Amino acid sequence: MAMISRLLMSFFIMLISLAWHKGLVMGVDEDAKALCSVNLAQFLPPPYGGLENMVCQPVWNSFLLRYSQTKDNVVTIVLSTVYTTGWVGMGFSRDGKMINSSCMVGWVNPEGQGKIRQYYVEGLTPSKIKPEKGELPLTNVPPLVYLQGATIYLAFQLKYPNRLKNQPILLAFATKYPHHHHLTVHDDKTTILFDFSSGNSFDVSARPNDYTSSRKTHGVLGILGWGLFCPFGAIFARYLKNQKSWYYFHVSAQFIGFILGLAGVVLGLQLHNKLQVHIPAHEGIGILVLVLSILQVLAFFLRPDRDSKYRKCWNLYHGWVGRIALFFAAINIVLGMHYAGAGEGWKIGYGFLLGTIMLVCIVLETLLRLKKLDEPTHLPTYPMNSI
After folding, report:
1. Which ranges carry the DOMON domain (predicted)?
2. DSSP letters spanning 317-333
């Protein structure tokens, strides 16, 4: 009986918890529906007041994001939140970080005048947040800020070359007014990843950062594949030919490096489609290295016999295509760390790896040339006619 009583008590507690959680969710949904039902056309001019196919989504605290995206990739955004003093901002980031992001910031000064500016974040200090700068593709429709009761509305319109999908968004506010259009330090902020296709979002600071983890994996695969296995595979081929198993070491290292590099490229393409971040130099060089690596794989299957008259041409082709691929791979790894804002650990680690490979090559190349100099020169001998 005691066991049955405990089971019944646990069951009732579970029901009460579920009902309480459902009540909270329904309460949040009802509040969101009430806020989204506000008719913007009563106080905002077109196109902000008459958004077609408008999506309304709560994103953080009292922040509410309304947006509409046309077939021409024109995105009209209206951000609203509770307001007393200070400023409210919405930023578009490349990687979820403040640095190198472009933001739209609005406020209503004590005289009741609405102000909205674009800012570019060059650093984390207020002096590094530059007004009237940024990379947001604003249209000719003027952005505006409007205070309706206790709610402030920031409205602006963007025109992208491609459809806007997943985008890291920065949200922040401060209770102190900007000073001569220079922003004061924010009181609170957050970063979300917002999907403009579905209207879904998640708080990047509150749950695992999937795209940041993928970006790190992309970098690790590139460094291991193009920066470690492929260079050592080339070293085996050039300097260890006097060893019996050099060919198997060379092929194994090159094959592993190619697979890791290919996986890094595939993950990079997924990140490109996910974040809609365009880095032409890094992407172009990465594709070039992949193409050169594929040519090297094809060369493995098309290798002529040692006695073939084409073997010398094949050796030149195989050797120089490999060198060019490794050279551009090293450049692309450095570019990738630069664009990703990699920390000092990444830079020091790859610098140590690259320096070690170069030092090994210099030492082995020197020994190889000294060995060639020490080899005796065999002069042709001619038989002497006996007298």
Report:
1. 61-176
2. HHHHHHHHHHHHHHHHH
What does the pLDDT look like over 69-82, one tens digit per residue?
888 899 999 999 99
Look at residue 115 and tell me whether its pLDDT is greater than 50: yes
Closest CA to 170 of 132, 107, 214, 119: 119
Angle 210-224/344-374 helices, nearest 10 degrees?
10
Q: Write out the two tokens for 284.
A: 């172009």
How far, in Å, CA of 193 to CA of 277, rounded? Answer: 13
pTM of the model: 0.50
User: In this predicted model, what pLDDT tens digit does every residue of 155-177 receive, in sequence order?
Assistant: 999 999 988 888 889 999 999 99
Q: Residue 313 is encoded by which pair of tokens? A: 């041409």
3-class DSSP assignment, residue 3: helix
Q: Which residue has the tokens 């989504």?
A: 57
**What are the angstrom distances between the C-alpha of 85 and each of 78, 129, 146, 183, 386?**
19, 20, 13, 13, 116
Is the separation of the CB atoms in 332 and 226 below 8 Å? yes
Q: Residue 159 has which token pair?
A: 């025109």
